[in-house]
Amino acid sequence: MLTMTHLVALTPLILVCITAVAVMLGIAWQRHHAGTAIASAAGLNIALLSVLVIWQMGPVETPLLVIDGLALFAAILILISTLVCVTLAHAYLEKYPGPREEFYLLLLCAAAGGIVLAASRHLATLFFGLELLSMPLYGMLAYAFRERHSLEAGIKYLVLSAAATAFLLFGMALLYAQTGRLDLAGLAVALTEDPNAWALAGAGLMLVGLGFKLSIVPFHLWTPDVYEGGPGPAATFLASASKVAVFVVLLRLVLVAPAFQGDWLHGLLAVLAVVTMLVGNLLALAQSNLKRLLGYSSIAHFGYLMVALVIGDGLAVETVGVYLVTYLVTTLGAFGVVTLLSTPYSGEDAAALHHYRGLFWRRPYLTAVLTVSMLSLAGIPFTAGFIGKFYIIALGVEAERWWLVGGIIMGSAIGLFYYLRVMVTLFLVEPGMQRRDAPHDWGVRAGGVVVLGLALLVLLLGVYPSPMIEWVKLMAVAGS
Amino acid sequence: MNQNATALIAEYWAVGLFVAAVVTLCVFMIGAASLLGGRSRGRSKSLPFESGIIGAGSARQRFSVKFYLVAMLFVIFDIEAVFLFAWSVAVREVGWSGFWGAAIFIFILLAGLVYDSRVGALDWAPKRRVRVDDSI
Questions:
Q1: Are A118 and A50 in contact (CB under 8 A)?
Q2: Residue among A329, A362, A335, A328 at smallest CA distance from A439
Q3: What residue stretches are annotated with the NADH:quinone oxidoreductase/Mrp antiporter transmembrane domain (chain A) (predicted)?
Q4: Which residues make beta-bridge pairs with A388?
Q5: What is the pLDDT of residues B27-60, one digit of tens each?
Q6: pLDDT for residue A258
Q7: Residue A343 has what pLDDT?
Q8: CB distance from A4 to chain B under 8 Å?
Q9: Among A28, A105, A112, which Cα is nearest to A78's?
């Protein structure tokens, strides 16, 4: 039975849902773009404050959800990236010829889905959260449906995601048939007593479903096309909040359920991790489109993150936390710049690299933000990315998994080349095709301020990471 | 591990046999037909054959997108009825908390219905897109 404690613990989720319903009623009452954006941002901010308030409460478990350190940590990351998407979308959609307000509705629903997913302790909430996260994303990706690429991205994600969901459901059905339980704790107990082929098959199929959302390598084929085609804010959300939520739930599965800890599956995860980082980085080399390049780079980054899943003990949770924070801040910065350059909406996003040629001579500060993000993605010292990569390599060395460490180093070396290639393009002298440019007052608008803040945060976390590490440690302690 | 594998095979050999049999049967049917069957070519041989009549018109008929919209709205509110049915069976057992849960559920769907009618999703006639357009 739901008690008051449960309701208090669920406040962030409830607040996001209330905001979504309020925004929907607001649209029905009167269409007002700025008003809708402000209402969404206000709701998300209040939800964020409520997370900070209930941080002290300690783990609370309802039959379907668990609000522990890990769930709250993920909720904070999801809410922050949704806020960034709202501010970016406000500027981006200003000139959009069509209904603009529904984007925020979809964004809020997806954020609620992400929070549910990260807090799930039952296969029902896992599935429900995953679908609530993905369904609005189809709409967001195909939002500019008069653009061929955007429509293609939406449909592609819809069809492939439905296939992945079928795998996930079949995996769940096999686990249920084997154990008769759907809650993760019960599954864990039942599977320790009697591990067999069907349970392993179920776990493997679930891994396929989740691996698709994370674009782990054999299931990565959708990533570049969808990133390229989706409108800027939607792609930003897909690359940040969606991936964080799915990764957190995968971490929970691996830590809690021993079905995911069998030797065979561990070996598989290790192979997938190495293949993912190498293939992601190698394919990124040939890209001439910044959004595609960022898509492949995110594939590679989730390959690095899977190292923590493979090792799965010691500092693994803390490593995942630190890496997710650094990845999120950096990705939001990079996608923010791409979105700002395509702002306000007028057809396809400015993502081809030749748009960025000589950008420094027109927009020095925006270029600085993108440069910092690229350095951080490459893992150069004094940026946040370095701290994350340091943690991953330290974890691998401590567990003496030399193949994984070798893969990370190889991947980083390859990655450095294409990140630096983007940076060189930015500083080339001859001006490129100036078809698209950020608005002149971008620096004083909300989106510009957010992007500049993110770049400063990347540098700050790189130079002085201890507060973040302390915070993530707290999360890891509260979560285990 | 070896012992384990033997036990597994003993337990599940029938499944493996079934999979192998399915594959073998498919390969046999396609392979034998292509090896033994005769083959003839001609100008009209590649036309789709439907009870001796040549197909008329294109297979790609265009439907009004409204059909899909109606279908989706139907599913949404149909599912609402399904959930409420489950509640109505257990209405005494779940008590007030169940009542508030159902009330919130109905309120959210009502908000959705208001939204649908205001954006014009419930106007079946194809030409009425005025309300969406004039607010731009």
A1: no
A2: A362
A3: 120-414
A4: none
A5: 999 999 988 887 778 877 777 777 777 777 777 8
A6: 58
A7: 80
A8: no
A9: A112
| Total CB pairs under 8 A between chain A and B | 31
CA angle A15, A18, A22 (to 5 degrees): 140
Q: Is A1 on the interface with B (CB under 8 A)?
A: yes
Sign of the CA dihedral A307, A309, A312, A315? positive
Closest Cα of chain A to B63: distance in Å?
A: 19
Comparing CA positions, the residue from A203, A233, A266, A194 lying closest to residue A107 is A233
DSSP state of A433: -
A353–chain B nearest CA distance, Å: 33
Distance from CA of A98 to the nearest CA of B (A): 7
| pLDDT value of position A193 | 74
Residue from the list B8, B108, B118 with its beta carbon closest to the beta carbon of A21: B108
Helix axes A446-463, A316-341, angle to 10 degrees: 150
Element (DSSP H or E) covering residue B54: strand B53-54
- B119 and A24 within 8 Å at the Cβ level: the answer is no
Q: Chain A contacts of B118, Cβ < 8 Å?
A: 27-29
Q: What pLDDT score does B127 carry? A: 63
pLDDT, tens digit, 9 for 90 and up, residues A75-101: 999 999 999 999 999 999 988 888 899
Pairwise CA distance, residues A366 & A381, whole Å? 21
d(CA A271, CA A353) in angstroms, rounded, equals 32
Beta carbons of A24 and B12 less than 8 Å apart? no
Chain B: residue nearest A30 by CA?
A: B135
Which pLDDT belongs to residue B2?
A: 60
**The two structure tokens encoding residue A309:** 């899943």
Of B8, B107, B112, the CB nearest to A197: B8
* C-alpha to C-alpha distance for A101 and A26, rounded to whole angstroms: 9
Query: Chain A, 77-106: which have a CB under 8 Å from a chain B CB?
Result: 97-99
Distance CA A350, CA A228 (A): 10
Residue among B6, B127, B104 at smallest CA distance from A7: B104
pLDDT for A267: 86
Closest CA to A204 of A167, A239, A178: A167
Question: Which of B97, B132, B135 lies closest to A1 in CB terms?
Answer: B97
Q: How far apart are CA A180 and CA A172, in angstroms?
A: 11
Which residues of chain B neighbour A99 with C-beta distances below 8 Å?
A: 119, 132, 135-136
The amino acid at residue A128 is F
- Check if the beta carbon of residue A158 is closer than 8 Å to that of residue A138: yes
- The number of beta carbons lying within 10 Å of the beta carbon of residue A264 is 10
Q: Which helix (H) or strand (E) holds A67?
A: strand A66-67
Q: Identity (one letter) of the amino acid at A314?
A: G
A364 in contact with chain B, both atoms CB, cutoff 8 A: no
Burial of residue A179, with CB atoms counted within 10 A of its CB: 0-12 exposed, 13-18 middle, 19 or more buried: buried
Q: Kindly provide the ipTM of the predicted complex, given to two decimals.
A: 0.83
Instruction: Please give the mean pLDDT across all residues of chain B.
Output: 82
What local confidence, expressed as pLDDT, does residue A473 receive?
87
Task: Spell out, as residue ranges, where chain A has pLDDT lower than 70.
Answer: 1, 194, 257-262, 431-436, 478-480
Degrees (nearest 5) of the Cα angle A378, A412, A432? 45
pLDDT tens, B83-122?
Answer: 899 999 999 998 898 999 999 999 999 999 999 888 888 8
